[in-house]
Design a protein that fits this description.
The structure is a homodimer.
Chain A (H helix, E strand, L loop, with lengths): L5 H10 L7 H13 L2 H17 L1 E2 L6 E2 L5 H4 L4 E8 L2 H10 L4 E5 L17 H9 L5 E4 L5 H14 L5 E4 L15 H9 L4 H6 L2
Parallel strand pairs in A: 3-4, 3-5, 5-6
Antiparallel strand pairs in A: 1-2
Helix pairs in contact in A: 1-2
């Protein structure tokens, strides 16, 4: 792409560093910013820089938070004995949205992925294992995505806490509520049969 | 969406002002920025602000440019008698990419669109009409997209220059090179028959 302006070119190049934003999309976004008042560009820029500079992580669960301890970890009414292990803040938001979980979280910050150069030391796995060893935890629920990286990460953590007397569970995989069986993939359908639940139990879950 | 951090919330809100970026995508982009070094966020922010503050437009064709007169308008080798009327810099880039046009451009900055609150006075139509009236122009080529807004804009300009002795043309519409007829829409196929060109002429165009 040849630009008639170095300023545009630079802005497009920076924008297209973002995931899923190609040069064309970046140009569209940049041209939109050009049509807006100057303050708009300044607000966007300021919000990004301030966020990046001042962001904090909860001391306990490592979720993004504006205080030392996040609202969920600070909430006395939550069950601090049950810890749901997730990848990032999006998973916390998704599970919180269901209103079905009253425990607390542990945010790993990613999954073990040798291809992307992410090893266990870059994640908050040690902090989780320490927490479990203190003996205040009764159950760990793995809620990572069921990819090879997710399974690897689950297993890596599991090996370190398997000897401790806690329950280790993983969220149920199966056909999504409302989905038709004929369109489901074989692995999911197979798993939903193997891990079938008593009918009475399924009635209570809504 | 409920965020555990006001900083994240603000950044996501600003990002999701951009066209085609919803809250979910904005969150994905923002989390990506969080994982990058601080400088990366600063570079992006700076590029956007600098661009918005210092951007210039060519005095002649109104295209985005880093100088008073853009490279195309300043190029003596281009045919200044033929003006291609386009909507924005993307169209200039697309036509320049073909290497088939040796005239100059006139960038309108948009199309007349009452729904979006864009009237003729917000576009550079007057400047184009003035240019034509000076008598140095032999042909105007409309290259706006063939939507209702594009057609309206073409017609609005045409009315003001129809009395002047210049050629007014529009880019050819038809079946794209390489496309199969059976998948073409009726309007395009119909037009490509009505506006058929002599076979010998079609041989030269590549």
């Amino acid at each position: 792409m040849e630009f008639s302006s170095k300023l545009i070119e630079k802005a497009v190049n920076e924008m297209s560093q973002l995931p899923g934003i190609g040069k064309r999309t970046a140009l569209r976004l940049v041209l939109h910013i050009l049509k807006q008042p100057k303050e708009q560009a300044a607000f966007l820029a300021q919000a990004l820089v301030t966020m990046r500079e001042e962001i904090k992580y909860c001391n306990s669960c490592h979720n993004i938070s504006d205080s030392e301890v996040c609202e969920i970890c600070a909430n006395e009414k939550r069950n601090h004995q049950i810890i749901c292990v997730v990848e990032d803040i999006r998973d916390v938001m998704a599970i919180e949205n269901t209103g079905q979980f009253r425990g607390i979280y542990h945010v790993l910050g990613g999954k073990i992925s040798p291809i992307d150069g992410v090893g266990p030391s870059q994640l908050t796995i040690n902090s989780l294992v320490e927490k479990v060893k203190l003996g205040q935890v009764s159950e760990i629920i793995f809620a990572l995505s069921s990819t090879m990286e997710g399974d690897t990460t689950n297993f890596y953590i599991y090996k370190q806490i398997a000897d401790l007397s806690i329950i280790v569970s993983t969220i149920a995989r199966g056909i999504a509520v409302g989905d038709e069986l004929e369109y489901a993939d074989e692995v999911t359908l197979g798993r939903s049969i193997l891990q079938r639940v008593p009918f009475e139990k399924s009635l209570k879950s809504n």
